[in-house]
Amino acid sequence: MIQHRPNLDWMLKDLAESVPQTRHVVVLSADGLRMGAHGTDTDTADRLAAACAGLQSLAGAVAAELPHSDGQMRMVVIELDGGFFYLMAAGAGAYLAVLTDEGVDAGLIGARMRDLVARIGQHLTSPPRHDGPAA
Questions:
Q1: Does domain 9-124 have CATH number 3.30.450.30?
Q2: Where is the Roadblock/LAMTOR2 domain (predicted)?
Q3: Mean pLDDT throughout 57-71?
Q4: Does residue 4 have a pLDDT over 70?
Q5: Average pLDDT, the chain
Q6: Is 82 left (phi over 0), alpha (psi -120 to 50) or beta?
Q7: On the CB side of 36, how many CA atoms lie within 13 Å of its CA?
């Protein structure tokens, strides 16, 4: 069964354009499939989405080591030569990833990502896929 997903690209564009020095914005499923993107070509968005799946899994494993954690990743920030990478949980089985230049306002991008997730989080949910015929 194919599920229709709303086109999220315009909302991602709004995020990118409201924070100077934002390069790429990608929404992905927990298994690394691109659900939407802005500011990037399809191949780059797909590579970022695939890398994010491993990163969110790693962050969840680390979170599980905290005594009062439910093991769920909320946000990961990585400082890179030339920029920053942000990965935020954005609904059940969905994530929002942003790659920025190094001069970005880190507080502003984090706040805008949280605002976007709060506004459209239910639309960013990616239900688990099941193999085999649909019932």
A1: yes
A2: 9-100
A3: 85
A4: no
A5: 84
A6: left
A7: 23
Structure-block tokens of residue 58? 């790693």
pLDDT digits (tens, 9 = 90+) for 15-44: 899 999 999 999 998 889 998 899 989 999
For 23, how many CA atoms within 13 A lie in the half-sphere containing its CB?
15
**DSSP letter string, the chain:** -PPP----HHHHHHHHHHSTTEEEEEEEETTS-EEEEESS-HHHHHHHHHHHHHHHHHHHHHHTTSTT--S---EEEEEETTEEEEEEE-STTEEEEEEEETTS-HHHHHHHHHHHHHHHGGGG--PPP--S---
Residue whose tokens read 């093991």: 71
d(CA 14, CA 118): 15
Count the residues in the chain. 135
Where are the domains positioned within the chain? 9-124
